[in-house]
């Protein structure tokens, strides 16, 4: 896919509500602005679904450099286009990896020889270092912004938990989700039902936690995830 640039040059709005989230955006953007004003550097913005709102607010209201938009996969691309239509902004996706995994994104992201290239990478505080370390090893400067985190539940109604434990298939969309599930199970070795993961990364995390019956699609995404859930249900004769 060819590289195309979208311009984000909207002025700071003095009357913007300064919520805690808004102050976080402003503080991160101020730091970025100090570092991102050199015209000889090419900038990529890596967009994931969970960080999309933060990313768009920051780059449209504060940061005045050109970005080449990079999406993590087809699901993010679809939501990104929806956001663009509703916001009336004209920003195009410049690159999407052939497979929605960090490893593939790292290997396929184009780089123009020795030209300096900075990657803005909003992420969960709990996300692995795979993307920034991989891109750094290829010569990119990676600016990671931890924009959110996830917190596991610390108490679940026991009746609901028993119903959940009896479910033939548990569907999970992130490594943190399966870790939270395992923390709720008193005896992992005794729970022999299936796990349907949204993709290979979550499936690998599931297997590392000792769960055996793990299903996941070759191509990460909602449609493949549904297929994996149905595949797991067929094992239990529910389909």
What does this structure look like?
- This protein has about 240 residues and is α/β, with parallel strands linked by helices.
- Helix content is about 40%, strand content about 20%.
- It has 9 helices and 9 strands.
- It has helices at about 20-35, 50-60, 75-85, 100-110, 130-135, 160-165, 175-185, 200-210, 220-235; strands spanning about 5, 40-45, 65-70, 95, 115-125, 140-150, 170, 195, 215.
- Strands 1, 2, 3, 4, 5 and 6 form a 6-stranded mixed β-sheet that branches. It has a 3-stranded parallel β-sheet with strand order 7-8-9, with helices on both faces.
- Strand 5, helix 5 and strand 6 (about 140-150) form a beta-alpha-beta unit.
- Helix 1 (about 20-35) crosses helix 2 and helix 4 runs parallel beside helix 5.
- Largest sheet, if any? 6 strands, mixed
Q: How far is the N terminus from the C terminus?
A: 39 Å
Fraction of residues in H or I helices:
40-55%
Computed over alpha carbons, the radius of gyration is 20 Å
What is the tally of helical segments?
Answer: 9
Element string (H = helix, E = strand):
EHEHEHEHEHEHEHEHEH
User: Uncertain segments of ≥5 residues (pLDDT<50)?
Assistant: 1-21
Please report the total strand number as a whole number. Answer: 9
What class would the helix/strand composition place it in? alpha/beta
Question: What's the average pLDDT?
Answer: 77
Q: Based on Cα principal axes, name the global outline.
A: elongated
**How much of the residues is beta strand, in percent?**
15-25%
């Amino acid at each position: 896919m060819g590289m195309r640039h979208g311009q984000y040059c909207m002025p700071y709005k003095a009357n913007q509500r300064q919520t805690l989230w808004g102050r976080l955006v402003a503080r991160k953007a101020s730091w970025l602005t100090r570092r991102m004003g050199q015209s000889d550097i090419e900038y990529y913005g890596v967009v994931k679904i969970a960080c999309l709102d933060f990313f768009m607010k920051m780059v449209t209201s504060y940061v005045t450099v050109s970005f080449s938009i990079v999406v993590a996969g087809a699901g993010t691309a679809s939501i990104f286009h929806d956001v663009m239509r509703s916001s009336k902004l004209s920003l195009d996706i410049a690159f999407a990896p052939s497979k929605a995994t960090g490893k593939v994104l790292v290997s396929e992201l184009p780089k123009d020889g020795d030209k300096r290239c900075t990657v803005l990478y909003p992420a969960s505080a709990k996300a692995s270092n795979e993307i920034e370390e991989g891109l750094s090893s290829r010569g990119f400067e990676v600016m990671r912004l931890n924009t959110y985190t996830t917190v596991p539940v610390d108490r679940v109604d026991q009746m609901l938990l028993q119903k959940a434990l009896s479910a033939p298939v548990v569907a999970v969309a992130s490594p943190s989700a399966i870790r939270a599930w395992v923390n709720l199970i008193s005896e992992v070795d005794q729970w022999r039902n299936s796990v349907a993961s949204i993709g290979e990364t979550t499936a690998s995390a599931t297997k590392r936690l000792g769960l055996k019956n793990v299903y996941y699609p070759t191509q990460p995404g909602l449609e493949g995830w549904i297929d994996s859930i149905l595949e797991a249900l067929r094992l239990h004769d529910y389909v």
